[in-house]
Specification:
- The protein is of the alpha/beta class.
- It folds into 2 domains: 252 residues, Acetylglutamate kinase-like (Carbamate kinase); 142 residues, VC0802-like (2-Layer Sandwich), CATH 3.30.2130.10.
- 38% of the residues lie in helices and 21% in strands.
- It has an 8-stranded mixed β-sheet, with helices on both faces.
- The longest helix is centred in the N-terminal third of the chain and has 22 residues.
- It starts with a strand and ends with a helix.
């Protein structure tokens, strides 16, 4: 069985939704994972924010505006009266449910229920569409088998245990539809896998049933060797290793959710990144194998804050770094890069929600300098210790740009450099020219 995930743009209009059958083969065993229709999740976030703020009038107006969009969507997707009636019943139910939150106490628990409605709508409407054209399919409720544990980590064995019987109940069917992004938490409440989590859902399902392959369908033909929005002449990468793909996803390649790689990697499930608008394009295949001796791609991550802690107490001291890291652990703030000298440590974060508290605690160790508005530029490829010249080509490309930090040797797959955000475009173009042209 294959897992096919389609993002919001792939189901962003009735026309695009109907064209999914150009890709989906109803005669092959497939689980199709759908995101919400593009724009829906942003609207649901706005609705939830208004209700959380106590602005019930504005929240209700947002519900009505989104409802009108879906009424038009149903008319175009389901022109036949019988199925249009079924589609209207679905959206009437969901939007009546959403409107009802204006009359109740609204907490973060209700917020997650609101955010789940987008995927529930897209999958149910697509299931009705398939019925309308006599294509057999089974709608699988993700809330019945997608679950996170007490640490908010996905529970793959739970998914295997609860999804397998559902598939066995429908042995005569080959096409299954389910929701991306949504799940239940350890308390049984409706929750989600964070924004972009539909990729994660697909990878987790692939792991849970040991699928033949996971396919992530978006609106770009695979992972490119640079950011096509900034650099001209970028090309898709034919093949990446899981480690290379994880580095690129984390450091800014938006096509893939950073966490999506790990379940597939753990269970050795190949992942393909493909283009809904150009199904014949080869895309990118992610496996354990990769071409050796090549630089693969460049990615950039914005909104980075650099923190330098300088203290003579570091000199010949043990336990110093542990105490520094414990500060970030207490505030659940991940660290991206780190470099050290005998008397100083520099590191970067992208979550500044607790920056003031972190700075106060770090000042007990020594002087603290904070630099904001930086960018991490990550060059991914085969940087093993036996490879000569790749790192020098990277540094030569950026000799005219001030570099705040360098991370090299942490893995065999990347060199990361921290620069001021204003130099990002120049850095990406200069690296591309030196490394790929």
């Amino acid at each position: 069985m294959k897992i096919l995930k389609f993002g919001g743009t792939s189901v962003g209009s009735p026309e695009r939704m109907t064209k999914l059958l150009d890709i989906i083969n109803p005669n092959e065993e497939q689980i199709v994972v759908l995101s919400a229709v593009s724009g829906t999740t942003n609207s649901l976030v706005e609705i939830a924010n208004n209700f959380l703020a106590g602005d019930k009038k504005k929240g209700s107006e947002c519900v009505e505006n989104l409802y009108q969009k879906y009424k038009a969507f149903v008319i175009e997707l389901l022109p036949e009266a019988e199925f249009q009636e079924q589609g209207n019943e679905v959206i009437d139910y969901h939007f009546k449910f959403l409107a009802g939150f204006a009359n109740d106490i609204f907490t973060p628990i209700e917020e997650k229920i609101v955010l789940a409605q987008g995927e529930l709508l897209s999958t149910t409407l697509y299931h009705i569409y398939l019925k309308s054209i006599n294509v057999p399919s089974v709608l699988l409720p993700a809330l019945d088998f997608m679950k996170t544990d007490e640490d908010n980590e996905p529970d793959v064995p739970f998914t295997t245990k609860h999804l397998t019987p559902l598939l066995e109940q429908h042995k005569d069917n080959k096409l299954f539809i389910t929701q991306g992004y949504i799940c239940r938490n350890s308390f049984g409440e409706v929750d989600n896998l964070r924004r972009g989590g539909s990729d994660y859902t697909a990878s987790l399902l692939g792991a849970a049933i040991l699928a033949e392959e996971v396919q992530i369908w978006t609106d770009i033909d695979g992972m490119h060797n640079n950011d096509p929005r900034i650099v001209k002449g970028t090309k898709p990468i034919a093949q990446l290793s899981f480690d290379e793909a994880a580095e690129l996803a984390y450091f800014g390649a938006k096509i893939l959710h950073p966490q999506s790689v790990f379940p597939a990697q753990k269970y050795k499930i190949p992942v393909r990144l493909l283009n809904t608008m150009e199904p014949s394009a080869a895309g990118t295949l992610i496996t354990y194998d990769s071409e050796k001796g090549k630089i693969k791609s460049i990615a950039a991550k914005d909104g980075i804050t650099a923190i330098r802690i300088q203290s003579s107490r570091m000199l010949l001291a043990y336990g110093f770094l542990r105490r520094v890291f414990e500060v970030f652990e207490r505030y659940k703030t991940p660290i991206d890069m780190i470099t050290t000298s005998e008397v100083a440590v520099s590191l970067t974060i992208d979550d500044t929600s607790h920056l003031a508290e972190i700075k106060t605690e770090l000042e007990t160790f020594g002087s603290v300098v904070i630099d904001e508005n930086h960018t991490i530029v990550c060059v991914v490829g085969d940087f093993g210790a036996d490879k000569h010249g790749f790192a020098s080509r990277v540094f030569e490309s950026l000799k005219h740009i001030p570099i705040r930090m360098i991370s090299y040797g942490g893995s065999n797959y990347n060199v990361s450099l921290l620069i001021q955000g204003e130099y990002k475009t120049e850095a990406l173009r200069s690296l591309h020219s030196r490394l790929f042209e």
